[in-house]
Amino acid sequence: MSTPVEITTAGPDRIGALADTLSRAFIDDPMLRWPLPDTPDIGDRLRQTFASIYLDIADQGVIWEAGDAAGFAVWIPPGAADDMFASDEAVRGMLAPLTDDGGVKYEALWTWIEERVPRDVWYLDALGVDPSRQGEGIGGTLIRHGLEMARADDASAFLETAVERNVGYYERFGFRVVDQGSPAPGGPHLWFMRT
User: Fold this and answer.
1) What pLDDT sits at residue 18?
2) What residues contact residue 74 under an 8 Å CB cut-off, 6+ apart?
3) For 97-104, which contacts have Cβ atoms below 8 Å and span 24 or more sequence positions?
4) pLDDT at 3
5) Which residues of the chain have pLDDT under 50?
6) Torsions phi, psi of 171, nearest 5?
7) How far apart are CA 108 and CA 103, in angstroms?
8) Using CA atoms, how far apart are residues 111 and 121, in angstroms rounded to an integer?
9) Which is nearest to 125 in space by CA: 76, 173, 171?
10) What is the distance between the alpha carbons of residues 157 and 151, in angstroms, rounded to a whole number?
11) For an engineered disulfide with 133, which of 48, 70, 82, 105 has Cβ 3.0 to 4.6 Å away?
C-alpha cells in the first residue's frame, strides 16, 4: 500500500537533488543513454545533463518534487514548450563534451522530439522516481498531479518514452500512442503518447 506523498514546486535550489534522482532513475533509459558514451561515469554524465537542462527553467514553477527528492516531474504548460526547448538548446554547447560525438546525436534527438511535441498540451518532459522508492505510487501521484493541471486548463497531456514497458504504464493513466519512431538509424525507438 502506498503512502501519500506531498507534491511541491521545486525551484533552482532543488536542481542538485533533481539531477541526482533523475540520473539514478534514467540510468538505463535508451533515449538518454544514446547520445552518451557507455563509460563507467555514465551516472555522472546523466547528472550533469539533467542539472544543465533544467537550471534555466527551474524558477518557472514547472518542476514538481515528490517528498524529499523521492521523485520529480517536469510538466510544461501549454504555450511554454518553446521556452523549455530554447533553454535546452542554450546548454547544448555545455553538454557536447559529455558526448563522444560533440553532441551530434543529442542535437538530432532533441530536434526530432521538439518537432513532434504539440504546443497546446501539458507536456510531461520528464518523470523519474528514485529506484529505491519505485513501486510506492510516487510516479502515479506525479502523473495525476499533471493531469489535474491539464484538466483545469481543458487541455490534453503529452509525453514521450523510449522504454517499451512504460507504454502500458502510461496507458493506465489515459495516455495513448499517437506516434512512434527513431530519430536516426541505430537510435532509440520512442513512443509519443497523448491523453
Assistant:
1) 95
2) 54, 57, 62, 63, 64, 124, 125, 126, 127
3) 98/36, 98/45, 98/48, 98/49, 99/35, 99/36, 99/37, 100/36, 100/37, 101/35, 103/35
4) 63
5) 1
6) -60, -30
7) 9
8) 18
9) 76
10) 9
11) 70
Note whether 74 and 60 are within 8 A (CB). no
Q: Which amino acid is at 147?
A: L
Identify the structural domains of the chain with CATH numbers, from first to last: 7-194 (3.40.630.30)
DSSP string, the chain: -PPP--EEE--GGGHHHHHHHHHHHTTT-HHHHTTS---TTHHHHHHHHHHHHHHTTGGGT-EEEETTTTEEEEEEPTT-HHHHHHHHHHHHHHHGGGSSSTTHHHHHHHHHHHHH--SSSEEEEEEEE-GGGTTSSHHHHHHHHHHHHHHHTT--EEEEES-HHHHHHHHTTT-EEEEEE-SSTTSPPEEEEE-
pLDDT of residue 55: 87
- CB-based burial, 50-67: b 16+ in 10 Å, e otherwise: bbbbbebbbeeebbbbbb
- 5 grid coordinates: 506523498
Gap between the Cα atoms of 19 and 133, Å rounded: 16
| Grid coordinates belonging to 129 | 522516481
In whole numbers, what is the pLDDT of the chain averaged over residues? 92
- Largest CA-CA distance found in the chain, in angstroms, rounded: 46
**What is the pLDDT at residue 2?**
58
Given a contact cutoff of 8 angstroms between Cβ atoms, the answer to whether 150 and 156 are in contact is yes
